[in-house]
Amino acid sequence: MTATSPTETLPQADVGVVTGPSELTRATLPESEIPTHWYNLLPDLPEPLPPHLHPATKDPVGPEDLAPLFPAGLIAQEVSSERFIEIPEPVREIYRLWRPSPLYRARRLERALGTPARIYYKYEGVSPVGSHKPNTAVAQAYYNHLDGVSRITTETGAGQWGSALSMACALFGMTCEVWQVAASYASKPYRRMMIETYGSSIHSSPSELTQAGRALRARFPDTTGSLGMAVSEAVEAAASDPSTRYALGSVLNHVMLHQTVIGEETLAQLAMFGEEQADVVFGCAGGGSNLAGLTFPLLRENLAGRTTSRLVAVEPAACPSLTAGRYEYDHGDVAGLTPLMKMYTLGRDFVPDPIHAGGLRYHAMSPMVSHIVNLGLMEAMAVDQDEAFAAGVTFARTEGLIPAPESTHAVAGAIREANACTESGTERSILIGLSGNGVLDLPSYQDYLSQQPGADAEAER
Ligand SMILES: *Cc1c(COP(=O)(O)O)cnc(C)c1O
Fold this sequence. Notes:
Helices cover 39% and strands 16% of the residues. It is an alpha/beta fold.
């Protein structure tokens, strides 16, 4: 166990002479370098993505099947064969509030680990809500607004997606109604308050407000909820009201598409550091969107023969869809209302233990991410919660930044790789997708710290 206890001496970085391809620590791009297009991996896939199927007929879903749930612009993107899709100007205008996001070289972490590896992190916590999720929330709110929609329903786990979509809705003069997994609703009040501050409303799921919620409460009276249950409630609420649409913060192809601004910026920023490529890339994987956003543009470069980056999905051992799930058609929700999608899944009834990384508690994985893992174009690994938090603490004590509990999984993968570089004496460039900030998740760090040997008796009680 590599955990650093609170009473141990902190890993202090040497204040030595910095060496390496460049002295840069934080690569920032000007606003003019915000990508003008999202990158669509679908047409570049060596084998086509298995289509989503209608839940009743089992035929491939057509635009008319999705119309009750999603606006036309997003339905077109879900199956588009265009490689580059222009980002509408109103969306880019909002992206300017925090994009381009910075790429850092983690020099102090490198020195603390004593590794010959060069470690970088692309930081998405600079958005107003502290995660990558507004990259798609703003786009989804925009296309709904274009279609005259005034209300959007959605689900949220730890609250990052609900807060991102509520912000995006506020910016377009709309509201949203959020169903939050019961375990998080009880234990994580601050994003609920953010959602209300943005003018949206939020319910604990399963709730009494929908048929699906009432049925789930009858069947599982003590349930802590799950994303799959909350999806059922939000989908039902949208499908039964013509002025309302539904939005999903991960999993679907159009969400992966919107997140590719992360990887496009990263390619330009790695070049600023003098790197020809990131040799190994780690992203945490819940539904797959921050990972896809970072890696799909890099995979394009791999497929074109220009780079040889190893891409690694890091998931929690408590919810291991890629490393222990089956690759088969499953629903995205518990009630079976969503289309069937071919993906790595633990089964739609799977309720993971209430781990702290609430954003990674989904029973399945994006069909696009699943497909490229199945084709061998991406690897997957699982880390347990203690290893993830130990990595988050090491990161905080060297880089200063406290990563979101989800992001600590990617940091843990990178630290394993950096230590392997130390053992073999190999220099390698390692890239971390740092999907969000952990300041609103500090109670989870507190839980972790209080369980470490050396924590004082007061904290253990
Ligand atoms: C939601 C969330 C995740 C997990 O979702 P993905 O779609 O897998 O990216 C990861 N990190 C943060 C900070 C999140 O908010």
